[in-house]
Amino acid sequence: DAGVIQSPRHEVTEMGQEVTLRCKPISGHDYLFWYRQTMMRGLELLIYFNNNVPIDDSGMPEDRFSAKMPNASFSTLKIQPSEPRDSAVYFCASTLEGWRNTIYFGEGSWLTVV
Amino acid sequence: GNSVTQMEGPVTLSEEAFLTINCTYTATGYPSLFWYVQYPGEGLQLLLKATKADDKGSNKGFEATYRKETTSFHLEKGSVQVSDSAVYFCALKGGSGQNFVFGPGTRLSVLP
Q: Which of A1, A11, A67, B53 has its CA 20 to 30 A from that of B75?
């Protein structure tokens, strides 16, 4: 079975540029999560969706960050404009409704803003 | 709200030593509990889980028992290997929410 698929795996961009990260969750999963991981702050939940609807975006750092889920098989996380402090690994993850169900992570998108 | 507390790292052990990484949680209701492992340069992978009190999750020589009376889910391994060097995350799901709550992670380094 295909797992959670993220792209790009690595991106280096200049400050001020727009960055778009993409995620394809596991087929049939109804929850999708975006996390950010840094050495200083660890793993942070940015936003999560249920059935394509944003449920909690309280972790989104500021208005420069936006996330969409136009359908059940695709989500994007956009940063515009990007800043050096946005450099991090961004993980997408998905799971099924139900308290026993495991969350599955993608391999991450490693973003460097110079 | 739900929360997870893990012991601070880093933890450095010699090969074949015994490992314990403590994890305690706060949650309403009856959450499921998980341990995830992150190897260098990779995403988080499920290591083991337990879905009810007194359940023991186990995988790759690691074990953890869901203790409701002490609200704990400590990770143990009897003899660690260099290849176990990674960051370990305790997590919970359920109780009062559908989202996962992760602990801060504990970095383990195993020396040959």
A: A1
- Would you say residue B94 has pLDDT above 70? yes
DSSP 3-state percent helix, strand, coil across chain B (nearest 5): 5, 55, 40
CA distances from A57 to A28, A66, A94, A102, B65 (A): 22, 9, 16, 21, 33
- d(Cα A41, Cα A90) in Å, to the nearest integer? 13
Which pair of tokens denotes residue A73?
């098989």
Residue B45 to residue A97, Cβ atoms within 8 A: no
Beta-bridge mates of residue B50: B33
Residue A104 token pair? 């599955």
A96 to chain B: closest CA residue: B98
Token readout for A37 is: 């991981």
Measure A4 CA to nearest chain B CA, in Å. Answer: 10
Instruction: Enter the DSSP assignment of B67.
Output: B
Determine how β-strand B106-111 pairs with β-strand B11-14. parallel
Task: Quote the CA–CA distance of B90 and B103 in Å, as a whole number.
Answer: 5
Mean pLDDT, contiguous 10-residue spans, chain A (114 residues): 91 97 96 93 92 93 94 97 96 86 92 97
How far apart (Å, rounded) are the C-alpha atoms in residues B6 and B74?
9
Whether residue B93 and residue A50 make contact (CB cut-off 8 A), yes or no, is: no
